[in-house]
Structure formats: C-alpha cells, structure tokens
Amino acid sequence: MLAMALLAGCDRPVPGEDPEARGVLALEGGLIFTSAMADPIEDGVIVILDGVIEAVGPRGQVRIPPAARRVPISGLSVVPGLWNADVGLPDQLLEMADAATDEELTEALEERFTRHGFTTIVETSQGAGALTSLIERIEAGGVVGPRIIALGSSLPAGIERTRGGAGPTGAGMAGTQAGASEGLGSEVIAARAADLADRGIGLIPALTRAGYPEGGATPEEADRRRESALEEVLAFHVLGGDLVFGTGSGYVPQYDPSTDYMLLDDIGVSPEGVFAALTWIPAVRFGHDYTGLIEPGMVADLVVIEGDPLADPSAYSLVRWVLKEGVTMFNLLGR
Prior knowledge:
Blueprint: H1 2-5, E1 24-32, E2 41-49, E3 52-58, E4 69-72, E5 77-80, E6 82-87, H2 91-99, H3 102-112, E7 118-123, H4 132-140, E8 147-150, E9 173-175, H5 186-198, E10 202-204, H6 207-210, H7 219-238, H8 258-267, H9 271-278, H10 280-285, E11 302-305, E12 319-324, E13 327-331
Parallel strand pairs: 1-4, 1-5, 6-7, 7-8, 9-10
Antiparallel strand pairs: 1-2, 2-3, 5-11, 11-12, 12-13
Helix pairs in contact: 5-7
C-alpha cells in the first residue's frame, strides 16, 4: 500500500525567536531524500521562504535568492520531518506546561522528541483539554517543540481499536502495543496481519512499549510480546501494508527510537518502508499531508542527519539539525 500512500552540547534555539521563518533560507550541498520512492538528489539545494519549501533540486538548477541565508550541508543528508505516531506524554511534562519557563519546557521537549528528529507527535493517552497549555505555548512560539496531534479518547473517523491493543487506536490505525499479541501463535498472527492489510489498516509497531516490562510483566514476558509484535509487523509489511512509525514513548520511560530502527531493519522491513512510515504515511493518515515530503509547497519540516538512511536506518539516529516550518528546533551544526 506504499504506492497508494505516495499519491548535550548543542546550540539550542532561543524560545520565541524565529528569524528563519521571516525570510529566505537555503540549504546547500546535501544528499536530499525527497520521498521514499524517489532517488535522492546529490549535491542538492533546498530553498525555504517563510517556512515553506520554495524550491528543491540539484545545485545549479535551483535559483538561490540573493537575500537568502545560505547554510552549507555538504556531506550530510536531509529527510522530511519525522513522525512518532504513538506517544503518551507523562504527567510531569504536562505539569511543566503550566509552571516551567519557556527555556525549561523547550529543553524537556528537546530531550524527549526534537533531538531525535520528531517534528510531529501523536498523543494517544490524553484528551485534548489536558494538552491545551502545552500546545498553545508551542504554537505561540515561546516554546520550541514538535507539532502535537491529540487523539485522547475521541478517536478520529476511520480509526478502530485492535484486539489486545493498549491505548486508543482505531479504524485506519492499529496498535501492536504491550500485550497486543501475547500468547498468539504464528498462524493467528499471520491471519491477523493479513486481515489488517486487506482492510487498509495502518499498523503502528510500538516496539519500545511492546518490549518494556510494564504492568507487572517480567522481562521474559516483555521479550515474548516484542517478538510477537515483530512477527506481526513483518507479516503485515510483506503483504504491502502501511506501517505508521510509533514507539509508545512516554507510556514507558524510553524516548530514543534507535532500537526501533534497528529492530525493523533486522526483521527485514525495507528501507523505503521505514522511510515512508516515518514521514509521508502518517502525514496522510492524520490529515497533515502538507508535511512528509520535500517538495515545493510543503512546509519546511526537515531533518539533517549523517549517513544514508536507505542504506543504514541507524542514520536516523544521527540527527544534526531539525527544522519545523523553517524554524530551528535543534542544532548541532553551529551554523
């Protein structure tokens, strides 16, 4: 279904300041991955105007306005902003939204999400009301943080809760979260994966949560849950189902997605499948299809990384610069 879907020592941004979004920014010289299905652009250029991608292409074929702030990124790669479609924000972070300074809240969001390249997260544990303060502070520009989509208990149309899934999911979205496949044999897992793929359901692996010994589970039980989840993910992927990247971070105290990338690669999920699951597929599934691709007219949600993610998905963990709507969220480049 991928073809269908494709119709810390850092220079922390100063909250409230967004000079990039007010003018023209040009990223020059990187390897640009515009989508999961297109060949990357070598020695590419991306021009951003007021937070929107104005042009993208090889150097020499893209006009850079004279007033642009030019940032060299030779030797680095650029991918669309990443999505984490299964997050449970902890109460501590929500309490900070009411009491912490802009700098403190920015730092907390950076540590959990933005330093990992997530420009959009889907919150699947809280009602929208509980997130109001946090979302308003981010949208006002005082706090630098990811775009937050709040599901809460009111599930979007076309979303169903899957058997054994923990947390809100639904039609068009399924969760193999902790306990979702525990005790199921291979035949049952394969049948369930086939049913989900046939119905066009998007499958969230949530491997971080599946493999964490929460709820009184022993480490051995958690390992079995994760193995069942991996088996289901692979069967679903082989059948052409759309994976929607989500870790379950926040439900469990682990925010680094590196293990999830490694596990998906280890079981044989294609590099293109991982790329799409992190970018365009969730953007379409959640009605935010102005993100997820690097092309003119899309908002400038961009992640600059080291390495080639289609050759080695661990490159997604080597985040060096993150932009959301053209504004710096995280910066290790010092440029």
